[in-house]
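Annex B, item 7. Sequence and structure tokens for protein A, then protein B.
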Amino acid sequence: MKFQAAVLHRPREPIAIETVEAEDLIPSDVLVRIRATSLCHTDLEVIEGHLVYPMPIVLGHEAAGTVERLGSAVSHLKPGDPVVISWNPHCGHCFYCDHGQPILCETYLGLGPKAVQFDGRTKLSLGGTPVHHMMYVSSFAEYCIVPAQSAVVVPKEIPFDRACLIGCGVMTGVGAATRIARIPYGAVAAVIGCGAVGLSAVQGARLAGAGAILAIDLDDKKLGLAKTLGATHVVNAEREDPVAVAKSLTRNRGADCVLEAAGDPRAFRLSAELVRPGGQIGLANWTPDGFIGQLFSLIGRTVPPPPGVPPPPLWGTLPYCEALFGDIVTSVQAQHRDFVFRYASPEHFVDVFRKYYGPIHRLYDALPADRAAAFTHDLLQLIGRFNRSNDGTAVIPSRYLELVVTRC
């Protein structure tokens, strides 16, 4: 089978729309027609060369679509089923899968850096050259081939451009609050960073029943969205001291739980300063090399503090945890469905995304110049067929591409 896909040949170069050839399905595979797929920060890291993957590669791992074709051993799906794609296939029998931690599956982690599918092979090729897969999905294409366990059926009522967001950013943020931190009812929670993951963490804290939710960012627009989504207090850290606000809400103790979703060293330090003694810090975003050691030093662990950085006092008993895709426990499929069904409630959290149109091969140019500050989430909805312009350049006309961006 042949179809068109957005292929990245080298970092920081334009994505090319090219015709790729797909292998036949193995018995456990599913072919999914992509109806919506979003550009996550992880995809952007590959585009910019900060995250190294084998090339050429088809990016994209947050996606929703319809089942097109089934492998011979797949019986729980049928053609036409609306599905969200999970990028966490797992073996089900390694140490971590047996302990209800499929996000740490040994096969999943072992094959991931090789950019292959879960059976260890590439399923796409371009002129005889293997084309690699982004996080077992490769959804910047008309179709993707995934293990059947990665195609999670969802209600047909949820729009594809909302459903796909649940596949990564929403799952990570909401899961950080409800499954990692397990914020107790009435607790005081702080969320640092109000991008896509942070906003989802705010919503997760609300769903968990937090008594107060303190959202912290440097952008007033992001803070406005956080308030809309359930934050009871918002702080622009350039103008106000978040630590003072947190202590004012807790009789000078500090927040019960801090979810760090900014991915910035200043935010990591702030996490340790915000949380109360015996409280909890959850990392819901990307963390740079060396940070974990620095955080442990700040909270009184054995790692020496960075030069010139005195550790805050009294944090020796502070639990620390990473979100790890929202701590998908035991059943990835069940957790995806849980979040999808929440969309139908009055508390749904994915309709804040705004839309504009543009060709997919220029999606990198469409992002803000200051991507680290302004980029939160882009969504590409492939509505029709890939076409070519008059000069032969492969493009998707704007009417075929819906790009949803949260400028928050």
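Protein B:
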Amino acid sequence: MSKDLTKPCVKCGAVDRYKGNGACRPCNLVMLANFRTTKPDYDKQWQANNPERKLAINRKSRYGLEQEQYEQMFLNQNGKCAICRENVVRDVDHCHATGKIRGLLCQTCNLMIGYSKDNPEVLRLGAEYLEEKDK
């Protein structure tokens, strides 16, 4: 059964983007701001009590990645980083130009990719440098 999206807002009476709590989006934002001023620590407490849920929400919001998709990627990589294959994954690696998800990385490898500005040539030069200097 679908929600009736034509009900008027309980605050202003507008029939616009009805939310589950009975308010339209603008009124819902005002209500949320008021709630946050009366309970400023609520978000922090919720995040502390629900760390996995918070990560799942962030992955969905940032990358469009559903929890089931993340879990499948995690299993496909045996829970290990796609680059070093040693550390447990923490980050979703994605192309900043296209937004395409490439895999799951540990924080160290994700930072390495980020500091190279996603440029494979910089990473190759870095590898050559290490091989040359470590002889």
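Comment on protein B: The mean pLDDT is 89.
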